Amino acid sequence: MAWDGKGGRHCPSYAKGWDPAKGNLVERIYYAGAADNLWGPYTIGFLEWDGENWIDQPEPAFIANQDWEHGSVFEPNLIYHDGKWKIWYVAGSNHEDYLVQGYAESDDGRTGWSEHAVFASPELKMFDFCVRERGGGVDAIFARVWVGKGAPPPETGLWWCRAERPSRTLAEWSSPVQIMTAEDRGWHSGPWKPSFQFDERTPNRAIVFFDGLYRTGDPGPFPFAFTLGCFQLDLP
Known about the structure:
The chain is mainly beta. Helices cover 0% and strands 50% of the residues.
């Protein structure tokens, strides 16, 4: 599509929720894409399942509209909860070393988004905020990244927190607990893009997937290889 043709399709997030225009539940894979360049600026759109195929949409569903977003939104994480499509996302860019976690919500997940609000400040370097329901509350696993020079600080890695409801305010979530550091394991360091599900047989056990990378000997402009990791975590 014209709006995502130069940026690939990345940062996928699956969500199932109600579409009031269609009057039924829909399944979507939200992702980020760019119209002009692989490195952004990005907008967020989705593919929708029609029962046989994932269907492209002619335009993005979510775009930057606030000064603090610096014209680019990506890394979407969505859930449908209490009649709303709720999105946590990154604004800014790695190139600027400026990453802000934002939040908004919509009745149909496509239009009428609420005012874009800052969920986590640039100082936190929060790159993802993946939310899942469990019991009478919600859990979130998120990444804090390091795109600056030098060794990453100790807070770089994956973190977990919990809340009674998927709040738009970070202070209403529990104090975050670090569950993975940025230690160089050879095949990955500085994990990001966590996604998780709970074990059906052990409800408090989360199966966590994450992205990683390692440096290669390629002298080209991108001397890295991406990897995918997984671990299990028993939550309180």
